[in-house]
Amino acid sequence: MKEDGEIEEGLPSGEEEAEQEPQPLYDPLTEPWNDPASTSVVEHRLSEGHREFAPRPGAAPRYWERPFPDVEELSELRRRLREETVVVPKRELVGATYAGFWIRLAAYIVDATVVGILTLPILIAIDAQGALSSIATIAIAVIYTVGFWSAMGATPGKMAVGVKIVGRDGEPLHAGQAFLRYVGYIVSTLTLGIGFLMIAFTGQKRGIHDYVAGTVVVKRDTLALSRPALPEAGIAVPRPQMRWAVTLRELTETLLLAGLIFLAVHVSMQNFKVEGASMEPSLDNGEYLIVSRLAYAEIDLSIFDWVPFFDAGDNPVHHLWSSPARGDVIVFRSPTSPGFERDFIKRIIGVPGDVVEIDRETGVVRVNEQMINEPYIRGKTNCSSSCGPWVVPERSYFVMGDNRNNSSDSRQGWFAPEGNIIGKALITYWYDGSPELDLAPNHEVSFISEAAAEE
């Protein structure tokens, strides 16, 4: 009060103080939202804004910088944090130069040469032939590739051209990721190279195997200068409907990958059921087998005639892996059935250019006037009308069944055209009503001398 007894403006007198009811005490345990100080601050932020004002007695000091401009934005943030999932985006690698198609092709050629050099003495040491040779080669390639990928991030071929395999965020590969990448490598191969050609058309130079394992191939000299890119915002909170979009996208990617794998397997493999006894004792009636449709895949090099200084030659068609060989068990469309509707399974005895004949008395089969050793046959090789000699024409094969007394084959005067061949038998997986996995009975035909045959 002033000296003359007047009451100061804005302050209550003693009588007014006595008339006011006592305020209830604030209990933060029962009413945490009713804090007078905090309430006054919120009221000030949302109603007063930045306007200057004299603070009320007992009020908490106000904050000059408001974290939210209005109550609607504060409510919106609360709702999003309550109803939605906070997602931290995957960091991408930036600053690195991705290795292109031709650099990676050069690395592949170097690695293939190294694997060939390593494989040859091993195959000679273990005397591997036929299917065993293929299995040993694949095993060496897997150990070589996956081992170098997981240990050093690059095979010697990639080291030679100065590139390295890393994760999309720049992290080194682990063993599981390296093996998964090799599985994708096989898928890229089975798609007739489409998986590799993707490298030339994608932004990060990635093939199917890179997408499967989540990897990128970058140049070593730029990897040290690269860094993972941070997202524009620290976190991203998608709207509720965006979660369905993400789920739909992931489902679509999974279905597309599954469809691609199914298409690759269907293009490269096919299963068949043996009907009849013409291949006994090697294959029995009712036995199931898997046939490789890419075993004799061909490429016409004439498509590269536009390349300067390249000449495909007089015979531009070549086999990618191997050509049909004596002793291979093949499935082909019968040239004697109308419309090639029937599929036959026989063994190749003569290849293009061979002269095949059969001794009517002894049943011995000769190829180019040399006796062949056939421990896999049943019965004596007979011939009804003609016993040869038959000259095998180009792109055709002389075939016979292993059950020589119960087989319709080239002894009747026809040959199996190469264009009719569906594939080479690889695996038998079902026999006599139960699963039984085994390699197909492909045998390398060997020649024997007359003296050895008499013994």
Helical proportion?
A: 25-40%
User: Roughly what fraction of the amino acids lie in strands?
Assistant: 15-25%
Question: What is the helix tally?
Answer: 12
What count of structural domains?
A: 4
Could you describe the largest sheet, including whether it forms a barrel? 8 strands, antiparallel
Q: What is the CATH topology descriptor of the largest domain?
A: Umud Fragment, subunit A
What does the average pLDDT come to?
75
Could you explain how this protein is built, in words?
This protein is of the alpha+beta class and 455 residues long. The protein folds into four domains: 35-83, no CATH class; 92-229, no CATH class; 240-269; 274-454, Umud Fragment, subunit A, CATH 2.10.109.10. It has helices at residues 14-19, 36-48, 71-83, 101-126, 131-152, 156-161, 175-190, 194-197, 208-213, 220-223, 240-268, 450-454; strands at residues 92-94, 163-167, 215-219, 227-229, 269-273, 288-292, 298-300, 317-319, 329-333, 343-350, 355-358, 365-367, 370-373, 390-391, 396-400, 416-417, 421-431, 434-439, 446-448. The strands form five sheets. Strands 5, 6, 9, 10, 15, 16, 17 and 18 form an eight-stranded antiparallel beta sheet that branches. It has a five-stranded antiparallel beta sheet with strand order 14-11-12-13-19. Strands 1-4 form a two-stranded antiparallel sheet. The protein starts with 13 loop residues before the first helix and ends with a helix. Residues 1-18, 48-52, 85-90 and 229-241 have low confidence and may be disordered.
